[in-house]
Write a structure and sequence with these properties.
The protein is built from 4 helices and no strands.
């Protein structure tokens, strides 16, 4: 039972973190001239490629593609 509760809490935290990062990424991509690398760092990603991959999985476009269409 403890393992199930821990798994649920971990998944909930991950969902909240991902959602928060996505929202902040949209704000930074739309409202700043920061480079993708700087945005990735501000959002706590280990590097820009990890941020690009995560963003594309959630949004369907790379951060640069999304920024260009806004």
């Amino acid at each position: 039972l403890l393992a199930v509760v821990a798994d649920v809490l971990c998944n909930s935290f991950r969902q909240i973190l991902d959602s928060t990062r996505e929202s902040l990424a949209f704000d930074l991509l739309r409202g700043s001239a920061l480079k993708i690398e700087q945005i990735a760092e501000q959002l706590g990603y280990s590097d820009a490629s990890t941020f690009r991959r995560a963003f594309k999985l959630r949004v369907g476009k790379t951060p640069s593609e999304w920024r260009e269409r806004r």
